[in-house]
Specification:
One of its GO terms (cellular component) is cell envelope. This protein is α/β, with parallel strands linked by helices and 325 residues long. The protein is built from eleven helices and twelve strands. Helix 4 (105-113) links the parallel strand 3 and strand 4 (118-121).
Amino acid sequence: MNQAFFPKKIPLFALIITLLIFGGCQKTSSENQPKQVAVIISTLNNPWFVVLAETAAAQAKSLGYEAKIFDSQNNTALETDHFENAIVSGFDAILFNPTDADGSVVNVLKAKEAGIPVFCMDREVNSSGAATSQILSDNYAGCVAIGKYFVQTIPEKPSVDAIKYVEILGLVGDNNTWNRSKGFHSVVDSYPAFKMVAQQSADFDRNKALEVVESILQAHPDIDGIFCGNDAMAMGAYQAVMAAGKTREIKVYGFDGALDVIESISNGKIMATGLQSPETMAKTAALYAGDYFKGKRDFPQKMPVAVELVSQANIKDYSALIKRN
């Protein structure tokens, strides 16, 4: 009976030992694989976001991780596909620039449920605790500074005439759009002589801003200033103003700190911009991901990054930035 019993058990025992050894090898092999980081960006049709994406990926790679950039093309459905891809493919962290403050929440929550940390860059989602951390420009304070410069630099008119201006908004579903607008209006609305005659969205897009401003100028040819929620729109607005032959009469102001606008300021064209640092936000997000991989779990829900006013008054202080690029 014993002779019949043991021969049957020996192969099973050997199989168990083999599985334990193989499983141990697989675990060690998996642990030795570099972490994978997905960089999901709202759009790469804007040079500013290209810098954000490439800096995040480069910083992740410098830390020894693999990184892949995904372009959502300002489309929440495509963004959802990218998140599903990142989850199914086993990415270990997501560095995220949302397309929509509300619409992107569900994607962040899916990643959280899958155990994947999400670090938002520049744009936020409207859900406390969904993202592991959100690294954001201080858009409100930056546009308070723009608003102050705006009222200081547009020439006064006789008391009977209002100073007419236009505001070009970004994506209406993006909190940055409204934080910038609120910061700007917190200053300008305190000056009764300033009257906003039009407020319209151009989706942070240069070509759309060109078309929008061309249309506005037909209805309001006597405006004095245009405040744009980002620099791409400021360039489109200035192009429309130039085509109308009104560069002396109409002053254009942007926000972002894009190189082409900083160069335009240095050439005496666009009046000012708010200089954000996509590099700072991207590097911080990648470093936070690295800390997460090492076991850290206590991150600030929102990490503000300061914005600098760059204007025709202080552009000489930024000459090194222009030369560097």
